[in-house]
Amino acid sequence: MWGFYFNELIRSLPSFLEGLWMTVAVSGLSLLAGTVIGFICGIFRAGKNRILRTIIGAWVDLIRGTPFLVQVFIIFFILPSAGIELEAFSAAVIALSNLTASFICEIVASGIIAVPKGQSEAATAAGLSPFQQLWYIVLPQAMRSILPPLVGQYVLLVKDSSVVSAIGVVDITRVGWLTVQRIPEGLMVFGLVGLLYFAICYPLINLSGYLERRMTVVSTKL
């Protein structure tokens, strides 16, 4: 029986590879969009405009304080009632980008706030504009504390992407659910699902650890 299940699982490998590609595509697009939005919001979150800080803070609290699955359902099932029709792939990317941006926003804001105010004051005295201060003085220093948790957030993004299978995105998890209906050996099927996620996340985990060690060495030297 186990031999039969194993052979069936081998025959299902092309489907799992397609699911792997879908997971990488959804995660990759969400990573890019979430990073850009998160950095922009993080900069404003750490800025002096109280109104923007309040609005962004409320958005961050709302996204981080509600279940991600509920957010996915709202985007995919509720928005069409407002005339906004979205395919499952598009809804998944929007939901994941929104979630990722909210966490990256806080990471970036914390990194910027951690830079000593004396750096900005010295840059102002040197005649640098606010944008020049941010680009040449603040962000390069903030990146030392931003990079390790940022890469760690990318790992969480890949794992959170499994939730979008609930709206029909044929990612690794969805392929696993479809396969286990033919091969009633859940441990074998979802063991493979776990290995495929691990194959994506492991390089990111190593990168996060390397960056953390690297930034610690640089901070010690400084």
From TrEMBL:
Localization annotation: Cell inner membrane; Cell membrane
Matches recorded under PROSITE patterns: ABC_TM1
GO biological process terms held by the UniProt record: amino acid transport
Membrane topology: Multi-pass membrane protein
InterPro entries attached to this UniProt entry: AA_ABC_transptr_permease_3TM, ArtM/GltK/GlnP/TcyL/YhdX-like, MetI-like, MetI-like_sf
One Pfam family cited in the UniProt record for this chain: BPD_transp_1
Alphabetical keyword list: Cell membrane, Membrane, Transmembrane, Transmembrane helix, Transport
Protein name per its UniProtKB record: Amino acid ABC transporter permease
Species whose genome carries this gene: Desulfosarcina alkanivorans
